[in-house]
Specification:
Blueprint: H1 3-10, H2 25-32, H3 36-50, H4 76-85, H5 101-107, H6 109-115, H7 118-141, H8 144-150, H9 161-178, H10 188-202, H11 207-220, E1 239-243, H12 255-267, E2 273-278, H13 284-295, E3 302-305, H14 306-315, H15 320-324, E4 327-328, E5 334-335, E6 343-350, H16 351-362, H17 369-389, H18 400-404, E7 419-424, H19 426-442, H20 448-456, H21 463-472, H22 481-498, E8 509-511, H23 518-521, H24 554-560, E9 575-580, H25 587-602, E10 607-613, H26 615-623, E11 632-634, E12 639-641, H27 647-655
Parallel strand pairs: 1-2, 2-3, 6-7, 7-8, 9-10
Antiparallel strand pairs: 3-10, 4-5, 11-12
Length: 661
């Protein structure tokens, strides 16, 4: 590792090279009557010219943002007019796609330019011009190694491991400079491994020197990441997928996969986010090595189970080759590289809200639990209908650079154009329904109206009932079929509510088990809930147990959370488990955690994410942030530096359960 360069990035010393531009492009473009794609191309060309080549001493993978802002291309009135006619997802720019960097790396941009449209040719010329200016800066500095790499890429195909990494950095950089965001990395080890093997066979690299180069490459993801768009710092979508099978069922995990795990562990930075595809055939040694990365406290790897995901994607209409090649979007949503234009996070449905509405509108009239649950299902159906009916005439700002890197015309549509809907707070809903089923209908020990009144009163006048519902009632996570089966029925109901729906781009809707930031937002939409959750308390993130649930331990949680029919809700969203740092103190603990992951996969779990938690350290970091700059925590589908988070996110992480083994 280049220690000096590492310290530069860690301490943000490279920010001194940044500057903002004060261009009023929107007014200029409006006066000229430029089309959206013409505006995007012109801004990209100007930004490339405005960039200042910066090369640090001994830095092996170059390119760094020096222009820190992207001027708007539409005036406020123009943007209002666009939004009046179209459904605009998030910021309107393309995001959460997995482009085909690897075809460009193998062919070179000059060859890509031959088949590009007019706008594609212009953005290619702009990035080639910037690359040439970096080349001249390398010549001025006497950096022959950089000169050699940039004399070949990105103009021509990469020949070596270093050239492939440098090429990737340039393309990835260009997407952010264009305004695209949550630009994923895809199946990096599958497509870049041949370059590494070539260099090892030719004696260009040893394993150690290749690891050193890879660590430098990983540092490049952290140069500009504070400029990338996200809910919080760290939410930038730079997700890398390792391992998994190809279309022939062959495991692609290789030496590069191993080196990526090591490089991430050695760097201990939040980017790139590591994901690992596994299956029942994954050897236990791989889980052990992956757990060593978990021990580092970065919140990854995140695991995805090929045995569940691939068949489920095929059942939704994805072709075999595409399903086998799946990766993840910014967080955990399953997407198809190169040809997929799925919008995997276009909305979210709240299970607890469905229960709350049914409780207030129907509970007193329902004679049986089954009758009441039908009312909950109806609320889920109505919310899914509402979400789907509100998404019409979806429109994205054209992205000529992204289009160059896709195997489809992404400015129109892709091969797949499906919409993903998150499902929030399943544990809160399942636990609430368990209370109603057990105490209201089976034991008849709790009056319907008394429960409603206590909830509306936030349990202020009924502390004994609060304690009973919060700590004594059945909870998801204890391997109790009574409540686990309710979670299964909820997940099935959500999946069923979206079946048969066609979106405005001709695709389908995919139910998911993720929550994203909605675990905070949706929790504020209702008051207290029947599980003993009080008003304003958040739900658990993604597909997880409630924050205050008393559970037996991680084994029982896994048992509870692997019984459901994930083929009905395969948009993605992991079970998240927090482990106390002491669990990883020795090899025995590491192997036990690895075997726990294997058990999750063997039982048919679809997606899993593990965190390392140290409560004392986090509490101290809130008081003395200057002493904990590299304390990393997992938020939902991404990792962040704890001290850079807003307090509500810090407090949620602190409130999570830290398991031991």
């Amino acid at each position: 590792m280049n220690k000096a360069f590492y310290e530069t990035i860690l301490n943000k010393k490279h920010h001194v090279y940044r500057h903002e531009v004060s261009w009023n492009l929107a007014e200029e473009y409006a006066s000229k009557g430029l089309t959206p794609i013409e505006r995007m191309v012109d801004r990209f060309e100007r930004l490339c010219k405005e960039e200042t080549p910066v090369i640090f001493e001994n830095e092996q993978i170059v390119f760094m943002r020096t222009v820190s802002n992207l001027p708007a291309i539409f005036t406020e009135s123009e943007w209002d007019e666009i939004k009046a006619k179209h459904f605009i997802h998030e910021l309107g720019f393309m995001s959460n796609l997995s482009p085909n960097y690897y075809d460009a790396i193998a062919t070179g941009l000059l060859l890509k330019k031959e088949s590009a449209d007019v706008e594609g040719k212009r953005v290619i010329d702009a990035i080639l011009d910037l690359s040439d200016r970096y080349l001249k800066e390398a010549e001025r500095l006497g950096r022959d190694d950089v000169v050699e790499a940039l004399s070949q890429v990105p103009r021509y195909p990469a020949r070596t491991f270093r050239e492939a990494l440098q090429f990737f950095r340039i393309l990835h950089y260009a997407l952010w400079l264009e305004g695209d965001y949550h630009n994923t990395i895809g199946r990096f080890d599958r497509y870049v491994y041949p370059y590494l093997k070539h260099d090892l066979d030719a004696g260009v690299h040893t394993v150690d020197s290749a690891l050193d180069l890879l660590e430098d490459f990983f540092l490049s993801f952290n140069k500009d990441s504070d400029l990338y768009i996200g809910v919080q710092q760290g939410d930038n979508g730079q997700s890398m997928m390792l391992g998994g099978v190809d279309e022939h069922g062959e495991d692609v995990f290789n030496l590069l996969s191993e080196l990526c795990l090591k490089a991430s562990c050695n760097n201990r930075m939040i980017d790139p986010k590591i994901n690992l595809r596994v299956s029942k055939n994954t050897p236990k040694e791989r889980y052990t090595e992956a757990t060593r990365l978990t021990k580092a406290g970065l919140g990854f790897p995140q695991y995805s189970n090929d045995d569940v995901v691939i068949p489920a994607l095929k059942a939704l209409g994805y072709e075999h080759e595409d399903a086998c090649n799946y990766t993840v979007a910014a967080c955990w949503e399953f997407i198809v590289p190169f040809v997929g234009a799925d919008v995997a996070n276009i909305g979210a449905m709240s299970y607890p809200k469905a229960v709350d509405l049914a409780l207030h509108n129907n509970l007193n009239q329902c004679d049986t639990y089954e009758e009441f649950f039908e009312c909950v299902k109806n609320e889920i159906q109505k919310e899914s209908d509402r979400i789907a009916s509100g998404i019409n005439n979806l429109w994205f700002i054209p992205s000529p650079m992204m289009n160059v890197l896709m195997d489809c015309d992404i400015n129109t549509c892709g091969k797949y154009n499906n919409f993903g809907i998150h499902g929030t707070g399943i544990a809160t809903a399942a636990d609430s329904l368990a209370v109603i089923k057990k105490y209201v209908y089976e034991e008849k020990s709790l009056d319907k109206q008394a429960l409603i009144d206590a909830i509306d009163d936030n349990f202020e006048s009924t502390p004994e009932l609060l304690h009973q519902l919060r700590y004594e009632a059945p909870k998801l996570g204890n391997n109790d079929d009574f409540v686990d089966s309710i979670a299964t029925e909820l997940l099935d109901a959500f999946g069923e509510s979206l079946k048969g729906k066609t979106n405005c781009r001709g695709g389908i809707y995919r139910a998911g088990t993720g929550s994203a930031m909605y675990y905070l937002w949706h929790a504020n939409e209702i008051g207290a809930s029947a599980d003993g959750r009080r008003a304003k308390e958040p739900f658990g993130t993604n597909y997880s147990v409630s924050l205050f649930a008393k559970v037996k331990g991680p084994v029982s949680v896994i048992a509870s959370m692997t019984k459901q029919h994930f083929e009905n809700a395969i948009n993605g969203g992991p079970l998240t488990l927090e482990f106390h740092q002491s669990v990883f103190a020795d090899n025995d603990g590491i192997e036990k955690v690895g075997m726990l992951v294997k058990a999750f996969v063997d039982r048919g779990g679809h997606q899993l994410q593990l965190n390392t938690i140290n409560l004392d350290k986090m509490l101290d970091a809130q008081k003395h942030p200057e002493n904990h700059r590299q304390l990393v925590v997992r938020i939902w589908g991404w990792s962040a530096y704890f001290v850079e988070l807003d307090k509500e996110y810090q407090d949620h992480v602190i409130a999570r359960q830290a398991y031991t083994l």
